[in-house]
Amino acid sequence: MNEKYVPYRGYDAPYIFVSYAHKDGNKASEVIEKLQMEQYRVWYDEGIDPGTEWDENIAEHIENCEYFIALLSREYLVSSNCKDELNFARELEKPRLLIYLEDIQLPGGMRMRLSRLQAIHKYKYQSMELFFEKLAETQGLEKCHEKQKQEKTIIIESTEVVQETPRITIPRQGYPYPVKSGDTVYLGKALPGFFLAEGEDLAWRVLNCEDRKAVLLCENVLLNMPYHAVQHGSSDWENCTLRKWLNNDFYEQVFSDSEKEYILWRAHPSRNNPKYRTPGGADTIDPVFLLDVIELTVYGFEQITEIARNNGNISWWLRNPGFSQNFAMNFGWRVHYGGLQVDEPAVGVRPAIVIQTR
């Protein structure tokens, strides 16, 4: 794929999932890049860390997509991964479009299952422009594009308080030093009861830095604490006691007033468990949060694994639910999708924040 175009990152806004065989990369990129040039949000599996949980990552993106496009070819028909993606989209009853990259005959069973879907035979069009005119007219894609255009990105331009969320303000200044992905920065002081000495500077790894915003993950598991401190209780991320502690006692006591000036209050999606489909609950807006399983991949699974290894692979909470809301997912040397009981006290806390940079 052209380096100029990258997959849509996120789940909050409507996006299109494009399924294609990797051997058709050049043909697929022509379609994907045209969609992106026309301001469609597109997700495809370019750049996923192939080391871990590939299936869960793909399934999560299909589950959350607004529209599913399959780029059919001879290579697609012999790819078990491609057929799995198409079947999963069918099971979820996602709106689907078939684009034939070449003249092929579908097997009987597949032809029967797909006969009612909209289809465009790209190879019959003499130019990309004529093909895309037809593509843009398809009913499902047109509806998807309307949703994408209506979806508004919330940008807070000033320090005025927003009425619906009165504590959200944009920092008046950015972090005073230049940062880049992979750097370590120091913000905040350790509190009594942390695994660090009281008053020690907290180290944060820069997982991602773009658009003058840097995502930071604490390099240390700071202490052990239940996800939800109610015996035999259940909770989602929005309502758990750990979230309340992180965004009250932790935020207020760990960071100085000047440091709070460049810590951003950000919206964080509460995604379902990608394996067990346990509901994640409502999205939240917080300055301090826990990573979720998708962010492990988006922000660099290998780097996060290395950070965990430096702490002896102590298990620490993720914000996703486990196989029920009595459990929450955790990460040590690997992702534990079933999770641990939310009132388990011997699980680590490794917070994350987003800061404004200059």
UniProtKB/TrEMBL annotation:
The keyword Iron does not apply. PROSITE patterns: TIR. It comes from Faecalicatena fissicatena. Keywords: Receptor. Residues 12-128 form the TIR domain. Gene3D superfamilies: Toll/interleukin-1 receptor homology (TIR) domain (3.40.50.10140). Pfam families: DUF6273, TIR_2. This is Toll/interleukin-1 receptor domain-containing protein.
